[in-house]
Amino acid sequence: MTTILRAEIETFAVAGRFTIARGSRTEQRVVRVELERNGVVALGECVPYARYGETPEETLATILALGPQIAAGLDRTQLQSALPPGAARNGIDCAFWSLEARLAGADIGHLAGLDWPETMTTAFTISLDTPEAMAVAAQKAAHMPLLKLKLGAAGDLERLAAVRAAVPKARLVVDANEGWAVADLPALLAACADAGVELVEQPLPASDDAALGDIEHAVPICADESAHALKGLEALVGRYDAINVKLDKTGGLTEALAVARRAEALGLSIMVGCMLSTSLSMLPASVLAGFARWVDLDGPLLLAHDRPGGLRFAEGVIDRSGATLWG
Questions:
Q1: I need a labelling partner for 240 at 20 to 30 A (CA). Which of 7, 41, 157, 292 fits?
Q2: Which of 309, 308, 310, 80 is nearest to 298 (CA)?
Q3: What is the pTM (predicted TM-score) of this model?
């Protein structure tokens, strides 16, 4: 009954260039986790994020250091106190969920006590760029049911206007990635409202959250960098209208489920989001889709290649029915 833990860093090329307010990248490094018991192998994936002080090397070391405890019988429940919320715990937690499901021959939705939809509509991300380039990118993606615009730099009013002119009927959400200033926020939110934007994600640095309680929310505001795990969730009420639940922040599906349920109880709407990563990250996140008003699980679409056995994407709809990678 010994459980064997393995993990390694893997690199995936980005399809072109992915740009947000904090910078650009042409590749993404993830950590793949593998658990094996009685010949049954299950996988998990996590994305160490520099914004939260994580690196792939340190995350890998943290994961591998837990190998002896897992071999000695540490399970998914005990994992929650063995590691704090973050990428390392996420990779192991998701691998545990898959291992449990495979050993039991059960659906993970059944194990989680909820409906796990086979299909769901996802947002598609338009990277931060010039107004003209973003308008062109939006036109190319106009068939997608929901576009997510990366903003957070000087010239955002022009970017928003250019995109709306290019795709007048598209549903839009905006992600500023902490790139706006308190003084500029009323004008930017008003412009978003005029453009019919449904949601503005993390407009201010997390350290400026208090300001959001003192202004009119012309558009609902969603916490991302300000929303991590269960701890601190209550402090977001009155400042945010929604939270972006990401497994790399909660430290896995186990706490993400608790976060989603608590957020609902607090009256916060839910976006299920992701880091730039493969279907091995999207599949466990998709378990939360039933909670979500917005699903943003387009990570594999932004990579040059996904993993085999992953999700199918067509016209902004995710289909997990044929996925063999996880679960």
A1: 157
A2: 310
A3: 0.96
